[in-house]
Write a structure and sequence with these properties.
8 helices; 5 strands; alpha/beta; Rossmann fold; globular
Length: 224
């Protein structure tokens, strides 16, 4: 009898962290179901381009690309509202202007519905506490609480596990792990502001560049 293939629903932004998480799931033997969100972020087109390229490299057969236009109506984040400045002064105390209200909670809720429909046993999300910079929805504690909640609200046989393999890693460790798994980092995008050449000064670019520097290699994407 043929063994039923295990499936992982991978939330993938096109960034380095969620991409590595998806490759880790593949390395563990999961069939990857890819999920991407367009939520009116400043780099929406670039992120989608990266997502498509990464899915092709991964050989993903099933992918979901969903539009969430309500985030633009809520605003309240520099990633969405052009009237709010994207931080370029480095990581500061408090929650950064780039925090999108309850974004990961919403993403995980939608991912749960798809995972249940697809018969997946696992949801993968590339949250990193260092990268979260104070985001309350990027913590180990929050993700574990979401796992408990979604299993209370789904069928008994669904029994989903949310995997967050990078949550306690540094950016340099993420770069090294990506190299070991031959993740195509040149296909990923981290910049909060630009879609052609990365700005190099937003918090996300700073963290990424520092990670590559500490890992002792050059970042393969272009910067201004």
């Amino acid at each position: 009898m043929k063994t039923k293939e295990k499936k992982a629903l991978c939330i993938m932004s096109g960034g380095m962290d969620s991409t590595l998480s998806a490759y880790m799931m593949r390395d563990e033997g999961y069939e990857i179901i890819a999920l991407h969100f367009n939520y009116s972020q400043l780099t929406q087109n670039k992120e989608l381009e990266c997502f498509d390229a990464i899915c092709k490299d991964l050989g993903v057969k099933e992918r979901y690309n969903l539009d969430l236009d309500f985030f633009s109506k809520i605003g309240a984040s520099a990633l969405i509202d052009k009237g709010i400045e994207v931080q370029t002064s480095g990581i500061e105390d408090g929650i950064p202007s780039t925090y999108v209200p309850f974004r990961n909670g919403i993403f995980l809720s939608i991912a749960t519905a798809i995972a249940e429909k697809e018969g997946a046993s696992t949801i993968s999300i590339g949250v990193v506490e260092e990268d979260g910079s104070g985001y309350p929805d990027c913590t180990d504690t929050f993700i574990k609480s979401m796992q408990n909640s979604i299993n209370l609200g789904t069928k008994d046989e669904t029994a989903l596990e949310i995997k967050m393999p990078l949550v306690h890693l540094s950016k340099s460790q993420i770069v090294q792990a990506s190299l070991e798994l031959k993740v195509p980092l040149e296909l990923t995008w981290s910049c909060y502001k630009n879609e052609t050449k990365a700005c190099g000064v937003c918090d996300s670019c700073r963290l990424r560049l520092r990670g590559f520097k500490l890992a002792g290699i050059s970042d393969p994407i272009a910067y201004e």
